[in-house]
Amino acid sequence: MQVRKENQILQTHLLYCSLKMISDDSLANKTAQNRFYIVAFPTNPKTQLILFTGILIIYMMAMLGNLIITMLIIQAPKLHNSMYFLICNLSILDMSFISVTVPKILVITKTNMNVLSFNECISQMYFFIATANIESFILTSMSYDRYVAICNPLLYPLIMNSVSCFFLALASWLLGFLNSLLLSLLTSNLLFCKLNVINNFFCDLKALLKLSCSDTTLIQTIILVDNFIIGFFPFSLTLASYAYIITSVLKIHSTEGRHKAFSNCTSHLTTVFLYYGTALCLYMVPNAENSQTKDSTLSFIYVALIPMVNPLVYSLRNKDVLGALSKVTGWNKKHKVNQKTIVPKLS
Question: What range defines the domain where residue 216 resides?
Fold first, then answer.
């Protein structure tokens, strides 16, 4: 009888130990699934400082340039119209767009702490998709603004008034956040049972789907439809707008008039082709053998260089912005005073 009791106790103890080991393994697997490792920039200590400094300069230039454009449009009454209202939205968006990913890159580059929790990864992906979607809608709204200004100039104050511009911007922001919410919720329900190494410098949806061991057929189908609605359709509307614009401009007889009309569109066209060109190469081109390096390079151009270039495009090629900048800083008055003091009066 005593031997039977000891055997039962031993079996119970062995069962408890087995269940504990299974529970510990499950907890370890669950913990591993809730972590993601960013390995886009493998660096050695010699190049680490150079890379950190370069990324920091790009980030500061993007933030400063877009902040200057935003403040100028807010303060200069001459820039209080529909076109500059949309440019102001684009500048605010670019500051948000680059701030979603680049500060984390700086932390990883400086400290080598490349681990993101599941919640951090999904949150970063959510804001990245949202800002990218909103930018697509804002650029389409800007192309429509240019179409009305050139093709229907007499109706421009009536069509592109402050109320219509406000609702265009509001719809762009709302649709972007709602669409991103749908994709983020679907992604958060996926299982990740592999080594969660992301070969990019942020939590990109494309990279996360590669890591998932769940069936991603549904979300892949939704993404395909989403790319058409959010990407291809707005881009087609932009191209159609500029087809009408070019047709109307070519009908202008004076060379000066054609040059003025085209100069009002070149800044926007540059931004459109930079944004959509990079996005199409990143998300529409099939994966190649060197796709990891290509994706990281294109992603960096997409999220860092374009927000830095946009304010340069809109300031250096825009006389109204340069005029507002000189007026706010008082540079024009100082320049005139210096000219008066330097140039002597003729007797």
Answer: 35-322
Global pTM value? 0.81
CA dihedral 168, 174, 175, 176 (to 10 degrees): 110
* Phi, psi for 35 (deg, rounded to 5): -125, 145
- Does 177 map to a domain? yes
CATH assignment of the domain containing 92: 1.20.1070.10
Among candidate residues 142, 180, 345, 146, the one with its CA nearest the CA of residue 264: 146
Residue type present at position 14: L
Model pLDDT for residues 283-299, shown as the tens digit of each residue: 666 554 445 666 677 77
For residue 158, tell me if it sits in a domain. Answer: yes
- Chain centroid offset of residue 239 CA: 21
Q: What count of residues does the chain have?
A: 347
- Per the structure, how many domains does the chain have? 1
- pLDDT, tens digit, for every residue of 215-262? 888 898 988 888 888 888 888 999 899 888 888 888 877 777 777 767
CB 85 within 8 A of CB 126: no
The answer to whether residue 22 is domain-embedded is no
Domain assignment present for residue 138? The answer is yes
Cross-strand partners of 36: 116
